[in-house]
Each structure stands twice: as structure tokens, then as C-alpha cells.
Amino acid sequence: SFEGQAPKTWPKANLTPNARVVLAKRYLKQEDGQVIETAEDMIYRVASVVAQIEEENYGKGKKEIQALIKDFYNMMANLEFMPNSPTLMNAGRDLGQLSACFVLPIEDSMEEIFDAIKNAAIIHKSGGGTGFSFSRLRPKNSMVRSTGGVASGPISFMKVFNSATEAVKQGGTRRGANMGILRVDHPDIIDFIQCKEDNKEITNFNISVGITEEFMLAVREERSYDLIDPHTGSAVGQLSAPEIFNIIVDHAWKNGEPGIVFLDRLNQGNPTPLLGKIEATNPCGEQPLLPNEACNLGSINLKLMVIEKEGKMVINWERLSQVTRLSVRFLDNVIDANQYPLPIIDKMVKGNRKIGLGVMGFADMLILLQTSYSTEEAVEYAEKVMKFIQTEARIESQRLAEERGTFPNYEGSIYDGVMKLRNATLTTIAPTGTISMICAASSGVEPLFAVAYTKTVMDGTALVEVNPLFESFAKEFGFYSQDLMEKIANLGTVLGLAEVPNWVQEVFTTAQEIAPEWHIRIQAAFQKYTDNAVSKTINFANSATREEIAEAYRLADELNCKGLTVYRDGSREEQVLSTGTAT
Ligand code: GDP
Ligand code: 5AD
To answer: Are strands 129-133 and 101-104 parallel, antiparallel or unpaired?
Structure first.
């Protein structure tokens, strides 16, 4: 494991006191309950381990490695880029497992089902999240040949996965997180849609229905569709597509679950179709993967990519290009610095070399650009920024391919003969639940959750803090008062406050106040230039109707989203993960 401390002459990390608390709780090395490294030491540890791979694998000289460590260090200490949590926690340490996302196969035999449970436990222990397709399991009440009994079906096995996850609990770092997907044409689909209702048996899962194009067509044509036995591949019954669609909508309306994922679209984006079909994603939905594949993520902080030029706030394209390219190199190195929990995962990951570079602080960027989230202009910024990152990321991946070779499964991939790439995928929009707190940025591509937050400080007292961007706007545009700040602390929003100019109210609009259509259009704008998928919650007012949810699904489909997760304000939520704005 890595020994060493950040050089004293290097700049300190630009972390808020709150971010340092988050790091000390879960990320910094501890010995006998005492924290024994600083945040700077952690960043230095990560930068060193990830840079040194270039010495081992590509024979780079000491001088170049030193310079690279410093570049990586600066980019993280400035909070311009942050890798996913497992990389921060585990690089240069005994676990050495650096990926956030895994998908494990579940085949239909007792051995293979319990292999998956065991492998998931090993992954959870290291802080990774696991996704599964349960679609290959025979439906309940099917025959079990060896015993003459009847099968209990996918949902009963999900409960076993859930209990195993519950028992692991990961020694206090991260609890286990799972995604469970079932194809809409599996005979047990109705049980699946209802499986989290009125019970506490599947609490460690997010669930999504795997929607097919055939199903969506049947919904539009208001007809029935075939249920397929996963063993024989033949139709064993029919259900009314509009009826199933309504049951999904009804449950999502009630408590935000299940989500939906467009399986055929995931496969249209599958870069290596010869290696198999994509059947599942990681827990928050942003990373579709083949069975036994893993992916490491990292996100660029867009809040820091805005500068003043000739008195105007503009995007700092030059720095965004540098950070994007350096991040791709960083994430490509992580693939080799990583210690995988299973040999087969090691082989799959190193064959495709997928990375997931994304963004956080998009809402903050819009605020700095004085643009409301629910506008055409915001959609244009989303497309422009993500297109730029995608393009720059490809340029760097092509450069790496020249230097290090294409990903080993390049032949026969969708890039074969089109462009030589080092990585089968480059971009992913992760929720950035924790790393956005570390960077004091808005999470992923979500709008602000509130204009004021409650923070729990070290001794357990709760402090209310108004968004620092709002405070600086209030001062700059002359409507600051202590009174106003206290008011906002109570309300959490500035909508309708007479003291706040209308345009500022619009710029600081929060998730609840934004119409679902704009949420979806922003998601679609990012998806357009993202190889993998976009993690996003579509917020609805408590008064939203089922028809409005149905409308959202149709719009997401029409705009080429890869999936959709909705949440109606005040509906009971028992989610595995939530992007907490308060800590
Ligand atoms: P961050 O790097 O901690 O900010 O993680 P994100 O919120 O961006 O989540 C990215 C992915 O990491 C998720 O889709 C999951 O695959 C995984 N993940 C996130 N949070 C957890 C957790 O609490 N436990 C586990 N086991 N996995 C998680
Ligand atoms: N599919 C995709 N994403 C999901 N999330 C929760 N459940 C699902 C699901 N079934 C996401 C939220 C948020 C993140 C924390 O997890 O929408 O983006």
C-alpha cells in the first residue's frame, strides 16, 4: 500500500470545512479510530497511485510521472475533477478496488444464483454498487426438473440478495446498493412492479422495468403483447400493454418506483455487440454494462468552468478542454491501478476499458451564467457543454490509443474502422451524491434542491446556510439583508419574495418548482452527447396526476432518453441512495 504525504509546499485543497468533515468521516485513512491522513494526503495518494501506472505499464520516466502527479493533484485539490468515491477511499490501500459500478450475471441455476450473491457481497465490501438482470430466471411455479418441485421465481430470489446486502453493511463505509431489472415481457412482471410495495424486504434495491420497443409500440397501439419464457424463448401468455403501462405509472406515482429503462436503446448504444447484450445497469442507472463488467467514474465540476471575460460571465472552454483530457487519462490509468474483485471482471474491464467521465455543478454553472434551468437557453448550454466534453474526451482517447493501443475488444466494435479509441465508452452522467458535497457543487446535472440547506456540524448542531451563490448575487445586485437570508433559510426557496428581483427568482429556481418537461429536456440534452446514460430524478409536485407521469414517460421515450426515474413530492420514499444536499 501507498506510503507518503502531500508535499508541504503544494497548495492546500480548496475544501469547505463541511467537505473536510465528510472526508474525515469516511474517506481518510484511520488507525484505531483516529484519522491519520489529511485531505491533501488523500489527494496525493490518489494522484500518485494513478500516475505511477504510467511508469509500470508504459515505461514513463520519473520526471514525467512527477509532473503528472502534480497535474492530477492540482485538478483534484482545485475541485475541478473528482473520481468516484471508491477511488478516493481505496487507491493505494489494501482494498485497492476503485470502481463504483458493476453488473453481475444471474443465470437460472441454484449454483449461479448464489455465485452472484457471493460476488455481490465481495463487491459491496469494497464500496462498489451492483446491478442485476433477473430476467433469465424461470417464472414462479415453473417446474424444477431435478427436484420435481416448483420454482419460486425472480422476486423471491431478490429478497435473498437483499438480505445478503443487509448483512454485509460494509463495516461502516458504504452500505450495499443494488439495481434489479426485469424485462417487461417476463411472466412475473406484475409481481416485480409491486415487489417493493408495503414491505421492507427489498430495501437495498432500486428497481427498474426493462422496457422493449415492442412493448412501447403495443402501448401506442393499445393492444396486448407476448410474455416470453426465458428458458424456451417462446410466448407463454399475453398481457395488455396499456394495462401494464398503467400499473407501472401508478406505482411510480405512489412512491417513485419502479423506474423504467429502455433496453433496446441501451443496446443500440452498446459499443461491443459481439460480446453480448446489455441487460442491466448499476444502481443509479447511469452505467449500462455487460455481465461481469465494471466501470470507474469521475466528474468535472462545471461550477468552476465559468470565468469573467470583459465584464461578462462565460464558459472557460480552454480549461474545460485541459481538465477533460487530463480526466480521461486519469480514468484510463485507473483501469490498470484497480484491483478487481474477480478474475473474470478483471478480464472484461481490461478488454473494453470503459470509463465514465461526467459532470457536477451544472446548476451552479447556469446560475453563474444567469440562466434559469427551465429555459431553452439552459438546454442549449447542456448540449453545448456535453458535446464539447464528448469531443475532447474522444480526442484524448484517440491520442491514448496511438500511444497505448486501442481497447483489446476494438475489433468488431462499433468504432472498428471509424475511429481508434482507447476506451469503449467515455462519458456517463453520475449522480455525484458524495463527490458533489466534497466539491461544494450542485449534484450531477440536477437543479438546486433548495436555496438554503441545513448542515449538521461537528458537535451535532444543525446550522442553516443560504447558498453562497445566492448570497453573492444578493450583495452584487443590492438586495442583501440579514432579514432576507433568515427568511430564505426558513422557506428554502426565493420564489415569490418581493425583495428578490424576478430574474433572480428564476435563476435560483429549485427542483420542485421546475416543470417535469424541463427536467426531461435537460436529461435528453445531456444524453445526446453521453455514451452511457444520465442519472436524473424527474420531480413532480405532490398534486401531479398519473397522466402527467405517463406523459413524462412518453416524452422521455420520444427524446431518446435511456431511462426515467420520477419522484412525486411527499410520496413516501425508501430509496437505496438519495443525493442528499444536507450532510
Ligand atoms: P459518489 O462518487 O460517491 O459521489 O457516487 P455517485 O452518487 O456518483 O454514484 C455513482 C455510483 O456509485 C452509483 O450509481 C452506484 O453504482 C455507486 N454508489 C453510490 N453510492 C453508493 C453507496 O452508498 N453504496 C454502494 N455500494 N454503491 C454506491
Ligand atoms: N433507475 C435509475 N435511477 C434510479 N435512482 C433511484 N432509483 C432508480 C432507478 N430505478 C436514482 C435517482 C438519483 C440517484 C440517487 O438514484 O433518480 O438520480
So the answer is: parallel
Which residues' Cβ are closer than 6 Å to ligand 2?
206-208, 258-259, 284-285, 431, 433, 535-537, 563, 565, 575, 577-579
Q: Is residue 101 annotated as part of the catalytic site, yes or no?
A: no
Closest CA to 364 of 380, 350, 378: 378
Residue 542 catalytic? no
Are 178 and 283 in contact by the 8 Å Cβ rule? The answer is yes
Residue 178 CB less than 6 A away from ligand 1: no
Question: Is this complex's ipTM strictly greater than 0.90?
Answer: yes
- Helix or strand holding residue 377 (H, E): helix 376-404
Report the SS3 class of residue 13: coil
- Find the 357 Cα to ligand 1 centroid distance in Å: 14
242-275: b (≥16 Cβ within 10 Å) or e: bebbebbbebbbebbbbbbbbbebbeebbbbeeb
d(CA 26, CA 11): 23
pTM: predicted TM-score of the whole model, two decimal places = 0.96
What's at 358, amino acid-wise? G
Which three cell numbers mark 521? 429536456
The set of cell numbers assigned to 135 is: 430476467
- Give 2-9's long-range contacts (Cβ < 8 A, gap of 24+): 2/45, 2/48, 2/49, 2/91, 2/92, 2/93, 4/41, 4/44, 4/45, 4/48, 5/37, 5/38, 5/40, 5/41, 5/44, 6/38, 6/40, 6/41, 6/43, 6/44, 6/73, 7/44
Q: Spell out the per-residue pLDDT of the chain, length 583, in tens.
A: 899 999 999 999 999 998 999 999 989 999 998 999 999 999 999 999 999 999 999 999 999 999 999 999 999 999 999 999 999 999 999 999 999 999 999 999 999 999 999 999 999 988 999 999 999 999 998 888 888 888 889 999 999 999 999 988 755 568 899 999 999 999 999 999 999 998 889 999 999 999 999 999 999 999 999 999 999 899 999 999 999 999 999 999 999 999 999 999 999 999 999 999 999 999 999 999 999 999 999 999 999 999 999 999 999 999 999 999 999 999 999 999 999 999 999 999 999 999 999 999 999 999 999 999 999 999 999 999 999 999 999 999 999 999 999 999 999 999 999 999 999 999 999 999 999 999 999 999 999 999 998 766 656 667 778 999 999 999 999 999 999 999 998 899 999 999 999 999 999 999 999 999 999 999 999 999 999 999 999 999 999 999 999 999 999 999 999 999 999 998 865 444 444 333 3
